[in-house]
Fold this sequence. Notes:
The strands form 19 sheets. Strands 44, 47, 48, 50, 55, 56, 57 and 59 form an eight-stranded antiparallel beta sheet that branches. The chain has an eight-stranded antiparallel beta sheet with strand order 45-46-49-58-51-52-53-54, with no helix packed on it. The chain is built from three helices and 70 strands. It is an all-beta fold and 906 residues long. The N and C termini lie far apart (103 Å).
Amino acid sequence: xxxxRGLSAALILSVIAGLGVTVAPPAAxxxxxxAFTADDLPxxxxxxxxxxxxxxxxxxxxxxxxxQVRPPEGGSGTAQDAVNFVAMNAATGAPTPCHLSFTxxxxxxxxxxxxxxxxxxxxYAGGYFSAVNGVEVSSLAAIDIATxxxxxxxxxxxxxxxxxxxxxxxxxxAGGDFGTVQGETRQRYAAVDxxxxxxxxxxxxxxxxxxxxxxxxxxxxxVLGGDFFTVNGSDSHALxxxxxxxxxxxxxxxxxxxxxSVVKTIGTDATGxxxxxxGTGGGVFDGRIALNLSDLDxxxxxxxxGATQAVLSYESVLYSASHxxxxxxxxxxxxxxxNHLLAQPTTSVGKLGWFPNTNDGLGExxxxxxxxxxxxxxxxxxxxxxxxxxxxxxxxxxxTRFASSPDTGVPGVPQVSAASIKPGTVQVRWRSSxxxxxxxxxxxxxxxxxxxxxxxxxxxxxxxxxxxMSFTDTDVTAGQTYSYRVxxxxxxxNASGLSPTVTVTVPASAEAYPSAVIDDGATQYWRYDESxxxxxxxxxxxxxxxxxxxxxxxxQTPAAVNGPSTAIGFDGTDQAVYSDxxxxxxxxxxxxxxxxTTTDRGGKLVGFGNNTTKTSGNYDKHIYMTxxxxxxxxxxxxxxxxISTSGSYNDGDWHHVVATQDSSGMKLYVDxxxxxxxxxxxxxxxxxxxxxxxxQLNGWPQQPTSNFFAGQIDDxxxxxxALSAQQVTHHYQLASAPADTVSTVPAxxxxxxxxxxxxxxxxxxxxxxxxxxxxxASYFHFTLPSAPAGTVLKSARLSVKTSTQSGGGxxxxxxxxxxxxxxxxxxxxxxxxxxxxxxxxxxxxxATDGSTVYSASLDTAxxxxxxxxxxxxxxxxxxxxxxxxxxxxxxxxxxxxxxxLTFGAP
Length: 906
């Protein structure tokens, strides 16, 4: 009878064996092709390390080095003895009645690999043990799954630890530390009959431990992974493919994997096989390799750093367990926090939006070590085992699991800012949110408290790449103040809360300086007007936002540029701002910023580097200050190349600096004038981030005491071209040009009068009302500021917010009229209401929606004569449809009622 080596298509193996799985389509609740949510489910915990997982018919088998399992944090039940093994219900995460103890006479027993036969009837366990429930074995055991008992007639003798297993219909392949099996030489790899345990002729001798083994789907070949440098006497480090019957070499891989790296795990699917690698020392390979089954050659190589312990191919996605901390070599996150669970397409390196996380945990502080997929009905479960003690920052030791649905995780609340530099437009921008299992989110923009969004957009984001999204609101009126809020929603309908309200007043005339920066082509423009961390909005159309690091001081005044904008302050120790997504600088560019300082420790003002939260390893295209206050512009071309100023600029005044480089060379301008130039046209090419306020300066001429700048910085812009001398000078001059200023004046007193209750005072009410019949009238008192020197009142508006009560809006128009009589908030009633002045200041119309901010343009001539004094006005109506507003006593009033006054040059 011929021996079949074909694998069951539904076979789900432990990661140590590393075979792939056939599964149902991914759940629609997460961003495809990811098939699992990132929401960890309550799962019983171990008191040690989980090394291996396997699955059969809704039961997950767990092997490792532990002695007990206990309920999940906050769960019911009591701890149970579990000697290096436990069987778990895939759907509930609780132990089943199957109890097996893996023991040894002396030393510490451990289970290192588990695999289930294709017919789902037998569980094979490998490790270091001599008995299972008292039945003598030798580091490899076969368990009858139906009865949960060891098969006494299966007892091949392995001389040392078995670390990896794979199984076909009739053969079990093993890899590990052993040198003999059944007394015959088998150096680190062997094959035995799956029924009797008899040794097969298969011989694939290697010189160092075997850590992974997998059978190709056609059953013809076996893939080996480990520490070795030779296979059957041929050079092949860490990886080889051998014949499944004889063990003869089919494909060797000399000089393919770095000599200080090993293969820890192998997974397969219908198209290829995948290695997970671990290295020690410098220049290691810690990532993953995909190879094609058709030619056994490399498909792609992921060079992320952070040792990979497990890989599992599932529905065209490769899930992996590692502690990846630096994926900058593949254009992703720079060296920083550890990411222990990742997903990527089996066809390419790029990571998908699935980022549950564990901590490093016990033992070697590796985190997760094993993966397996099980199901219960239509729900699929991804099980994870290892040495971690937390999952998603909550206590969970050794085991966790993730389901295909439901997705219950809520996206983060967007961080929003808004700016308007010219009449007719408001730029609303926000940092895209993160969701651990949804890379595509839907954002809704709400204006003036309305419950109906004025803009909806989809956006992609990953935790290290959260690009700014923006919306330009063109339905705005000069002089009027608008408020905005944004939400994020995932594919399952989970919605974030509303972002904090941001307000912006549309100017009556364009701000000269920022308009010139944008008109001259800036593709990154940070004005530093935010009031909360960590988002820095980009005022250009390119959405290249920034992220604050270590809490720089916000909204510093006076700023460098005339107008309402503010500056940012840095402490010179560790504070900085970095761009939110990586980029390259392929050609000409300009770097522009304003700065003010008295430091004698120097520091970097602006530069390009390859890290964000840490100092960079590659860094140039930067402007820095020496201890003496001189400015240096430098690039790296195999050596440092710099130009610099002879004068110093640490005098406490605002200064403007621009550095350019193009095919004509380098130029450095300060305060509108060229200070130095050079003929260097090249610089270092790498993927990096623009950084403001500090980064590495080691090895550069006149290196200052500090890498970080102590002082204030304002209006930083990056251009994809070299600004001309005329443009530089023009920008410098425009910064001091007169600019409009906006003053927001809240009501000091407000109340309303009611003809239906003529003697009632409503001074403490949170509401105001306006109607003609039966009459309501609302009254407001303001303390008007004086016009700033050299300016006049250019526009004025009354801003109010409708309440949330039913019928809060009104189809009628309301008149804004001056009040000539005296009144107080605590005494006014309908019977003693003050006399009104002559004429109308303005008209409020279209205030039909509830919980929405509306405003009325006012007669500036009428108000100008009262600047610098107290002023009262009223809202009246001749209609019958009442208007209900929030008073200054209401918490939901968004700062209303208020006057918005714009002052500017005559």
